[in-house]
Design brief:
The complex is a heterodimer of chains A (280) and B (360).
Chain A (H helix, E strand, L loop, with lengths): L8 H25 L3 H4 L17 H8 L1 H34 L5 H10 L5 H13 L8 H27 L2 H9 L4 H30 L2 H7 L8 H11 L3 H31 L5
Chain B lengths: L1 E10 L9 E9 L3 E5 L6 H9 L6 E6 L2 E2 L10 E4 L11 H11 L4 H14 L15 H13 L5 E5 L7 H18 L2 E6 L2 H7 L2 E6 L2 E6 L1 H6 L4 H6 L6 E8 L2 E4 L2 E4 L13 E6 L4 E4 L7 E10 L3 E8 L2 E8 L9 E6 L5 E4 L4 E4 L2
Parallel strand pairs in B: 3-8, 3-9, 6-7, 7-8
Antiparallel strand pairs in B: 1-2, 1-4, 4-5, 9-10, 11-12, 11-14, 12-13, 14-20, 15-19, 16-17, 16-19, 17-18, 20-21
Classes of the chains: A mainly alpha (280), B alpha+beta (360).
Chain lengths: 280, 360
Amino acid sequence: MLKHIRTNWAWWLGLFVALFVVVFPIYVMFKYSISDRASIITGGMYPEPLWPFHPTTEMFEYLLSRDDFTVAGLISVKVALYTVALSLLLGTPAAYALARFRFPGYGVLLFSLISIRLFPDISTVIPLVEVFFNSPLSRLPVDIQVALSHTLLSLPYVIYIAMGVFETVPKDLEEQAAILGCSRLGAFLRIVLPVAAPGLAAGAIYTFLLSWNEFIFSYYLTFTSPEGTTLPVYLLRILNWTPQKNLLAALSLVISLPVILFTFLVQKYMRAGLTAGAVK
Amino acid sequence: MSHVVLKNVGKRYDRSPTFAVRHIDLEVAKGEFVTLVGPSGCGKSTTLRMVAGLEEITEGDLYIGGRRANDLPPKDRNIAMVFQSYALFPHMTVAANIVFGLKIKGIPPAERQRRLEWAADLLDLKGLENRKPGQLSGGQRQRVALGRALVLEPEVLLLDEPLSNLDAKLRLKMRTELKNLHKKLGLTIIYVTHDQAEAMTLSDRIAVYDQGRLVQVGTPTEVYNNPRTQFVAGFIGSPPMNFFEGRINGNHFETEGIGVQLGGTLVPPKQTADVRALGIRPEDLRIHTEPVPGGIPGTTAFVELMGSDDYLVVQVGRQLVSVRVPAGTAPPPGVQVWLTAVPGKVYWFVGDERLCIRAW
């Protein structure tokens, strides 16, 4: 599929620049996170070293010893998982209906779905907070509240990705299942879902990462919550409390790690999911 | 006893002003192999899908095994179907694919296993039971799809262009196997194809479709020898029948600016007023190097070699006419020849409907 590119010095230079842009921030983050005090507080006496004088894991140990950090980590994981579950539960049937049936108002519905994403998150935050704080929703646990708000963000993506996936599942399979005795729902559960599973998994991973990274909604819903907050908001709390580089870097690394690992492990499927439906 | 009966069946799709197929009357007897044949878009697949229950029937009645089946869901029609795409479930093994329908119908595992083994044996699928469809060749997939249909022990087996995804050689092999299977199991089969050769070789009877209408139903021999219209005459037979568009004027047939004197084997029909065309099959033409009564003049153009026979192509006016000749006997190009028909093999087409009249 891929053609071999002629490699000359310009190609290598381009590759190097691209790699640098990607890897340098990760290097800085990693370097700070394992730095000892002398390596970051130089007082202008000597330049910061490229590698810490005495690499140490004390910042990670410190983080793990803090209860509010473990609480935030747990909330982040729970919120992301709830968001994935909710998005798939709501998005998959919606996507299937949109992929298989034509009904009055189809175009309007499709457009309104994507139009949710036309507004910047920050501009929807006030009505969102209004709804969450002044309705029975406010009595829900904070992780459920945040997951609900994240589902608002992820649902259009999940529906669009899943629609593309369902459109690649041949109709013949369902018709054959119907002849073999399946009900419409039976054919969906036994045939369509398993065949679509890899594509839907891509949507799930996308949703997980979206929720894991999300800041704005989480911030407004949880910043003052006594129950705790998600990791990105927790990072801001720490930042407000101390500008200590090595602690912030360690925390940043902890937040990035699942994202980096996930992306490496499943990038093949993510690409497959995102292009599903684009080509036959 | 008729097993599947279509009475004046028609289908109009939602939002479409016209019928895709209409006035379909067809009776299929138990154990009969009936082929619906026609060019693409003629409504043959739509008819099959209506029998299967995949399309709603807009008008008319469908009976399967004596029961009115118009409103029955597919699973209650006691049918099985093989799709052109085979529609194998890609996430299941061959065995799981084959017994899927039995599982849904609640057949006990021991019986499922027995039928699986029967099908694997019958269709030469032994040893492939644990493969996924993606690991099979086209012919094997085809047989798995057949197996999945056969284990249901259906009253009627519906086949929608089942051979068209196979390469030419495999298609011939599967054609023979299918015919053999029909003989062995005594199945009632409705088969859809656009390939007239498949229709001719496989079927007990052929139903020829043209533009949403059923034009003719009959045995392959009947349809071949007595086509109802010019469309059928041209569609059934390979290479196709030669047509000469023209009219009868007095004792001449005028075509391609040539007046061919009627006589000899070129017998005119009783009513000559409405004649629109003349048709003669390639194997029914004879070549003469001297003028003969009823001979159509032309010039030899080139020869298509087929091995057992050759097809000599003769230019008549602006038209190319195909003539079957014994191998190696064709005259060289550029020779003036006269073509006559074998006695009784002259087809006239009359009226706007182009109905066929044979004259002798």
